[in-house]
Specification:
Layout (H helix, E strand, L loop, with lengths): L2 H10 L56 H19 L3 H14 L3 H13 L3 H13 L4 H31 L3 H14 L3 H13 L3 H14 L6 H25 L3 H14 L3 H14 L2 H14 L6 H22 L6 H26 L5 H9 L9
Length: 385
């Protein structure tokens, strides 16, 4: 019996997926008969064990001299071992044997069978990568069809696994790992839930701007989901905190008008009494007396002792002076004390100017020193007795 038939028989077992047997060859065709056919009876099947560790579901590196006949013969022995282990549901040993077979004789069919075994052994993400590598190797149509059939399902399963891990990392406060896992899950299967978990990790990790973008993205993707009220609440709080940060930056820079606008934006996102007080403080420093008075008064109405005791005292201390300033601003200009001070000063200046002009007119064109000398001459007359 030819080895080609033997190879097909060996690998049919790897595709027991309910869609019929897929016959694939693991070694190149045309190899001479390698000896008697294996006649072992399949061992009784047992329950599948734990998931195969990912290191046994990676594409092996082919060894030197993998194309000679002795290498192909060794690969055939590993394939027989892989089949036996697979029949016993021992997917780990089957994967190990398939890796050795591929190292000995690197055939795309062997890599495909490794992907099949790893999928059966619950190494979902590793199997997904193997299927993608097989598909990139330009396999025959049957193998390509099988890869394309499994890949979408594995992406969904792998994304769910990654999301579960993301939640576990978030519970342990490792927000960086949680973010990376949630992002990878969303790339595999674009469910809005994974964006929500990404936003949660960003919010808890203090990345407020990033969290705002992710929550907004979630709302665009998930219409009518029950988490929307929760997301809207998070967005309001995060936007307020972002405006609070901007307001503090403007205050440190002495930009009180811009700070007042940022505090007002924070209040619109999340109407907290402390923001009303901050609006009043910035308005007072910016010279917006009316806004400062209105905000201080609103703050005092919205709060009650003993809450905000320091801020309430500051508001009560500042209000009388601000109200006096506002009242003074409302007086007609001729009723303001400084108006008559200016008028009086101007009148005195005008009077002095007129007097100087008269004196200058009487002295003709003489220089100031000459006029004084002439005026003093009569007083210098010597009296004779």
């Amino acid at each position: 019996m030819s080895l080609l038939w033997k190879r097909s028989s060996l690998l049919a077992w790897l595709t027991r997926t309910g869609c019929g047997a897929l016959l694939v060859a693991s070694l190149s065709s045309g190899v001479a008969n390698a000896g008697p056919q294996d006649t072992h009876e399949p061992a009784p099947q047992t329950s599948p064990g734990p998931a195969i560790p990912s290191e046994f579901c990676t594409k092996p590196t082919a060894k030197a001299g993998a194309s000679d006949k002795s290498a192909q013969k060794s690969a055939r022995a590993f394939l027989l071992s892989a089949q036996k282990a697979y029949d016993e549901n021992n997917y780990l040993e089957s994967a190990k044997a398939l890796q050795k077979a591929y190292e000995t004789s690197p055939q795309v069919e062997t890599l495909f069978n490794l992907a099949q075994t790893c999928r059966e052994g619950s190494a979902t993400r590793a199997a997904l990568k193997l299927y993608e590598e097989v598909l990139a190797s330009d396999p025959d149509d049957n193998i390509a069809a099988e890869c394309k059939r499994h890949i979408p399902t594995l992406k969904v399963e792998a994304a769910a696994q990654l999301d579960k891990q993301a939640k576990e990392q978030l519970a342990q406060k490792d927000t960086a790992k949680a973010q990376a896992l949630a992002e990878e899950a969303f790339k595999l299967d674009g469910k809005p839930l994974y964006v929500f978990h990404l936003a949660e990790a960003q919010r808890i990790g203090g990345q407020h701007r990033e969290a705002i973008l992710s929550y907004e993205r979630y709302l665009n993707l998930a219409t009518g989901e029950e988490r929307q009220p929760e997301v809207l609440g998070h967005l309001s709080h995060l936007r307020a905190m972002d405006e609070e940060r901007r307001a503090e930056e403007h205050t440190r820079a002495g930009e009180h008008t811009q700070a007042m606008a940022a505090w007002q934006a924070a209040y619109r996102s999340e109407p907290r009494p402390i923001y009303t007080f901050r609006i009043a403080e910035s308005a007072r420093q910016a010279g917006s007396t009316g806004e400062a008075i209105a905000s201080y008064q609103r703050f005092l109405r919205d709060t009650h002792p003993p809450d905000y005791s320091t801020e309430r005292k500051s508001a009560e201390d500042n209000l009388p002076q601000l109200q006096k300033e506002l009242q003074d601003q409302k007086k007609p200009i001729y009723k303001r004390w400084w108006f008559w001070t200016i008028i009086g000063g101007a009148a005195a200046g005008i009077g002095a100017g007129i007097a100087a002009g008269v004196i200058a007119g009487q002295s003709g064109s003489s220089l100031p020193g000459q006029a004084i000398e002439r005026d003093l001459k009569p007083a210098l007359t010597v009296l004779r007795f």
